[in-house]
Design a protein that fits this description.
Structural class: mainly alpha
Distance between the termini: 76 Å
Number of strands: 0
Largest sheet: none
CATH architecture of the largest domain: Alpha Horseshoe
Shape: elongated
Order of helices and strands: HHHHHHHHHHHHHHHHHHH
Helix content: 55-70%
CATH topology of the largest domain: Serine Threonine Protein Phosphatase 5, Tetratricopeptide repeat
CATH class of the largest domain: Mainly Alpha
């Protein structure tokens, strides 16, 4: 695949000229976090690791730490991958950067594995810790164990964790095994689009895992038509009664986004009739309110939707502050358009009377 060669060429440029690393620096004010640029460079290093790459890898990892600190959009797996590559150098001195990463925020304290701290080997790590002072030393020892003999991890556990990491990041190893997943993970969107369309065409018997990917990939491309098709297939093959309502709500929401209000109303009407779950009813009413607000005109559909909302409101009284506010907004909108439920009932009554007269 040409990408493999392209990634290697860019790495060779950086190896020859470290000043090019500035092109990979995270800047908190910039619109582009450059996270995928760093990921691609890390992938190239992972496939051609040299001891002289240590400073490059440290730089890339520190940029991922900065990214995490400021909560910019991106994928936390790229931080974990960068940390994993750093551990491949078996250098205990990086333990402080790893330790600081785990304490960045609450999510990191849970998601960033403690095994990172001991990847140089338990014996080697404790020898290093005995030889240095650091503000985080006491907290670190409290976390992993005060001495080598009271360590909360075994060397076997650390070795097993390393194997798991290799397995987890297997798709970053060349030659590329799953081309579509690789393009998705590295945000190679232009190449991804072509492969995605080919992938859909060649699929006949979808598995549940493939359908989940179909939906994920469609979301990534912001391809509403494909996402709708994926959800329809998921619903068709679904055998979980609880998930069926959730999938139908999601499908209805997509139809609203593409302004196919008839199909959305059809789905929600069925859910309101069949679902015993008040949360589903609430979310359905929410979507009906959204349709009226987006349409912003009173026509037959808006009147039918409004009457449906009114029946649910009468039945359940209240849903949630958000949905109740939306209902009030819809009532105000319909009144501004000269419509009320009472007026509609009167109109239906008059129509029925004239129909009876001429029967």
């Amino acid at each position: 695949m040409d990408l493999e060669q392209d990634y290697q060429v860019k790495l060779d440029f950086v190896r020859k000229n470290r000043e090019l690393l500035e092109n990979y620096r995270f800047e908190k004010e910039a619109s582009n976090s450059k996270q995928f640029d760093r990921l691609r460079l890390n992938i190239a290093i992972y496939n051609d690791l040299k001891s002289t790459d240590f400073e490059i890898v440290k730089f890339l990892f520190n940029q991922e730490r900065e990214w995490r600190k400021y909560g910019k959009d991106g994928d936390v797996d790229n931080l974990y991958f960068s940390a994993f590559i750093l551990t491949l150098f078996n250098s205990p001195e990086v333990i402080w950067q790893l330790c600081e990463t785990k304490s960045t925020d609450f999510d990191s304290s849970i998601g960033f594995d403690g095994e990172h701290f001991l990847t140089s080997g338990i014996e080697k790590t404790y020898e290093y810790l005995e030889s240095v002072d650091h503000p985080l030393k006491f907290d670190l020892l409290d976390y992993i164990g005060l001495t080598e003999y009271s360590c909360k991890y075994s060397q076997e556990q650390i070795d097993e964790w390393k194997k798991d990491r290799i397995s987890y990041f297997i798709n970053y190893k060349f030659p590329i095994r799953d081309e579509l997943d690789f393009l998705y993970a590295t945000n190679e969107k232009e190449l991804f689009v072509t492969k995605f369309l080919q992938w859909i065409k060649q699929k006949k018997n979808w598995t549940s895992e493939e359908l989940a990917l179909y939906r994920t990939y469609a979301k990534y491309l912001e391809d509403k038509a494909s996402e709708i098709e994926a959800l329809k297939l998921i619903i068709e093959k679904n055998d979980n009664d609880f998930m069926m309502d959730i999938y139908n709500l999601s499908l209805s929401e997509l139809y609203i986004e593409v302004c196919d209000y008839n199909k959305s109303f059809e789905i929600i009407s069925e859910l309101l009739h069949s679902s015993p779950n008040k949360n589903i009813i609430r979310d359905g009413v929410h979507q009906l309110c959204t349709i009226i607000i987006k349409k912003n005109i009173v026509d037959d559909m808006s009147r039918n939707i409004f009457n449906t909302i009114s029946r649910q409101k009468k039945k359940y009284k209240n849903f949630s502050p958000l949905v109740d506010d939306l209902i009030n907004e819809v009532i105000a909108l319909m009144k501004r358009q000269g419509y009320s439920e009472q007026k509609n009932k009167l109109q239906r009554s008059k129509t029925s009377w004239w129909k009876r007269l001429f029967k």
